[in-house]
């Protein structure tokens, strides 16, 4: 924790306070469920922030690792009666192994080639989930997934699940901030800026890229397992490539080079998506997932107007505003100091 203070404690305190009071301000079952989903998505976007914003490695396939965690938990608990916690850990281990094996070849690719490769991984996982009907139940979905329990107490109500999920998010935030402000974080930023320059310093770039890729995949896997146990039902459509694109949009909109931006993006885009889905059909005859279109519009606007993302742009604006307030006001005419120097030159 030494790398987190002094000025980095303030955002953590604000985060804890907000998380603590939100469920009592918006205490309906619908809003609590929505906040739980935002917490689950935040686990994924934080991992993507580390991978993309800090290490500069794009991924359009993180819904694949979200799916691996969800289906590992679901299959083990439903088909084999494994404890939900053991199933969650198993999902993370399986995801770590798969992402490690996948990461070795695909992380040698750059930019759009890497993006296409990650899309390919997502498509493969999606097709496998649809095809293995004897295990995953295919398009019909896997139901009857049990709730998680906390020290033997089942997490049945939305409020208990809310605090559990956001407690996990807090743990992931602490881990991620320690990575960002450590030597590893400095290396990742170096890789983002210039891989060649980082290599010339004798740093094993491939190792760092692979490690952060696996970590981000594990975060997504944990989110998938928690999602499966919260919903009690999963289907392959939840883990489509478009879902990966949604995660990407959340990160970019919030601010890819900010852990807090990743959470902000997950919150804003999930709330916006729900609002559009519930409101737009009241005024227009629209069908399908119209919120995807809105995601696209928001992404284009943010990329054009605020390329660093909403939170970093807002933060920079506040810093600039505070800086201008602290600047001394200059009076008209020459200052006493300038008059003094002018007198010295004349003499």
TrEMBL record:
Keywords, in A-Z order: Cell membrane, Membrane, Transmembrane, Transmembrane helix
Q: Does the keyword Glycosyltransferase apply?
A: no
One GO cellular component term of this record is: plasma membrane
Q: Which domain of life is it from?
A: Bacteria
Main localization category:
membrane
Can you tell me which residues the record assigns to a coiled coil?
none
- Subcellular location(s) per record: Cell membrane
> What is this protein's record name?
Branched-chain amino acid ABC transporter permease
Provenance organism: Cytobacillus depressus
């Amino acid at each position: 924790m030494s790398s987190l203070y002094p000025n980095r404690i303030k955002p953590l305190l604000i985060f804890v306070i907000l998380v603590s009071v939100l469920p009592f301000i918006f205490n309906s079952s619908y809003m609590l469920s929505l906040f739980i989903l935002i917490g689950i998505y935040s686990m994924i976007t934080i991992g993507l922030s580390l991978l993309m914003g800090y290490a500069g490695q794009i991924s359009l396939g993180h819904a694949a690792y979200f799916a691996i965690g969800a289906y590992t938990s679901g299959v083990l608990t439903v088909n084999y009666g494994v404890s939900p916690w053991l199933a969650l850990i198993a999902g993370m281990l399986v995801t770590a192994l798969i992402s490690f094996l996948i990461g070795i070849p695909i992380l040698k690719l750059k930019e759009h080639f890497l993006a296409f490769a990650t899309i390919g991984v997502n498509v493969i996982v999606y097709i496998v989930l649809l095809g293995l009907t004897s295990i995953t139940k295919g398009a019909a979905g896997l139901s009857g997934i049990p709730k998680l329990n906390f020290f033997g107490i089942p997490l049945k109500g939305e409020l208990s699940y809310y605090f559990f999920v956001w407690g996990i998010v807090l743990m992931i935030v602490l881990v991620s901030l320690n990575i960002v402000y450590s030597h590893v974080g400095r290396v990742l930023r170096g890789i983002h800026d210039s891989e060649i320059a980082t290599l010339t310093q004798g740093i094993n770039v491939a190792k760092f890229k692979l490690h952060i890729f696996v970590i981000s995949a594990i975060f997504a896997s944990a989110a998938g397992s928690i999602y499966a146990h919260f919903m009690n039902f999963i289907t392959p459509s939840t883990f489509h490539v478009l879902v990966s694109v949604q995660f990407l949009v959340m990160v970019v909109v919030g601010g890819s080079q900010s852990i807090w931006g990743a959470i902000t993006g997950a919150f804003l885009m999930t709330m916006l998506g729900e609002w559009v889905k519930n409101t737009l059909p009241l005024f227009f005859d629209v069908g399908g997932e119209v919120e995807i279109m809105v995601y696209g519009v928001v992404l284009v606007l943010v990329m054009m107007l605020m390329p660093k993302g909403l939170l970093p742009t807002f933060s920079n604006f506040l810093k600039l505003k505070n800086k201008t307030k602290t600047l001394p006001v200059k009076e008209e005419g020459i200052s006493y100091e300038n008059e003094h120097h002018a007198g010295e030159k004349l003499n």
